[in-house]
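Regression report. Comparing outputs from two consecutive submissions.

Submission 1:
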Amino acid sequence: MQLFTACGKDIDFFEDFRRRYRHAFDLYFVQVPENLRTIAMTESMAKKIVSFDIMTVHGLLQTERYARELFVDGQIEAREDIEKFVQARMERQTIMRRPNRPECLFYVHELALQTRLGDAQLMEDQYLRLLFNTHIIRVVPANIRSAAFQSKCTLYEFPKAAPVVFTETNMGQLFAQDSAAVERGKRLFERLEAVALDEEQSRSKLAEYVSGLREDSHDPRTDLA
């Protein structure tokens, strides 16, 4: 209050600040999945993002059609809200085009590549998006079953703040600053680093999925629509 008063701020400013940052120092913070502001702010402030997804491509790498199909196919969000969520996800991706963008590494389990959404063109576009970003992608092979039993996880590191691990379900989003939780996240990524394909191998694996789609499209017995 003394600081805000010295800066000429009134009680309304203080109350708004307190509401906005009341959970800033909680070791564990849970919020509803519809709240998109916190995750966008976390990504924009991070200097490094390391993520693992099992069944879907990470939101920062999704094409617009892929993101929309995820919401539509999930049949959980109200249809009138889907476009709002899709556009919010696309806006989050602007950090990937910043000159000072965070250092990123995305571990994608092969199960996510095998999960077909929409038509063949949608999946080809998504595979190509990943293929053009293989410098920040590592594919975890399907035969690494132990990785498939892990929860999706993201580790954020910041220039002047403690790291945070993040996970989410359809029911909520969890941010953890607790040192034990962060250490568990780091151990997960150490394990993934040991079993994931390297950059060149990941590129080859993604190219296989693109080729597989194109071969299927020439099979008259296959309905890709």
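Submission 2:
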Amino acid sequence: MADLDVTRADAVLIGGGIASATLAAMLTELEPDWNIEVLEKLDGLGQESSDGWNNAGTGHSALCELNYTPQDVDGSVSPAKAISINEQFQVSRQFWAHLVETGRIGDPSTFIHAVPHMSFVHGMENVDYLRRRHEALSTHPLFDRMDFTTEHRRLSEWAPLVTEGRPVTETVAATYSPDGTDVDFGTLTTQLLDYAGSHGTTVSTGSEVIDLRRMGTDWGVMVRSTADDSIRVVRAPMVFVGAGGAALPLLQKSGIDEIRGFGGFPISGQWLRCTDPSVIARHDAKVYGKAAVGAPPMSVPHLDTRYVDGQRSLMFGPYAGWSPKFLKSGSYMDLFESIKPSNITQMMAVAPPNLDLMVYLGSQLAATRHQRFDALLEYMPDAREADWEEVTAGQRVQVIAPDASKHGVLQFGTQLISAADGSIGGMLGASPGASTATSIMLNLLGKMFPERIEQWRPTITKMVPSWGTHLAEDADAAHRSLQATAASLGLEHP
């Protein structure tokens, strides 16, 4: 490395998506004198999983996602995970509201809109489950405006496209929350990095990280320019790897013990996107259903109102697929190159317990366009196939984690990995990462800078007033937070 161009930074953030953008904006607030560099392989920001059409969940707050409220063997529904995710999303809302109120980022309508969140099921067993779910959640202050119905007439008021053409004798149920939102994380990523960039952060696109090495007490981050293949090194005491699917191989390159035993299982997807403006205008909700047996969380079907790049859209999906790539722009060798002696046992161990996932993915890969359209008809009976086009979604790399017996467990969620000395950390996994990125990055700061967290406390509580508390345990605080962030972000909360 001695013959290379070597520069110094106080922190290097790898990846130009919502995770690095959130951390860059936070560090700009907490340490305005730091020299921070963000490195992104592509020529633009937020183009992988943060992009609106690559992201399966835009505004995850567990108001409608049924996979966050599992049903126990005795029929009871546990609300704990849903409450935790909603609290984390409120942390994100508070941080965004702070940035808007202080002029750090601009008009919030460019990245967030009020969109009701709904769950929809049919069949007696599912109706009973949804009723129990509503009962379990609606007593908590973050969910107390959620309504439940089994009436077709009421459902048609909430989502007319869901009831039109549906027999009135069909047994259905739905919940409806007016507190839902839609978030364009691609646009938000750009705005966060624009703010950080205007205050000293260097944002380098077209910069591919090809290696990570220890350099004394620092890390040497080797960077290749995609424009001219030139190589340089950025030396820094702190590195964050927020590169989506590329985080696993980069952390493996670092050689830290904490990544040993971890692997990844990539899953791709597709959407159906409506092309008829008159249909788009008649639907204003995110309507989530129940996942098929074996389906990963990113493939839970939903009929979604979306705002991407300022344009209102309507989509349905996603349909799961498979590719060995770890990024949409990645290599077909990504999966195979990630298999190491330290994780091959864990990688092999996950197959037998997840045969239902393999069967599900096989059925999805074999499905024709017409069969995919049939799935839409369950949510929109009067849909016309000519009004919908297929769009390729992003790649997700689900975490394969070592368990206590050193075997592998396939996890659906996000996981922070950090070295024992706090010098390097990264985020693995997928949903609900984007929506909860603020909370995840605050946890990361606590792990990587335990000696600084107390001196940062006054600034953090300005950014996130509820930091360190549980809104679900304080109804007044929860309602104040919802109302205050709604006002700052231009969301209706009557």
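Expected: both submissions complete independently.
Actual: both completed, but the second showed a warning that disappeared on reload.
Relevant detail on submission 2: The CA atoms of residues 74 and 304 lie 32 Å apart.
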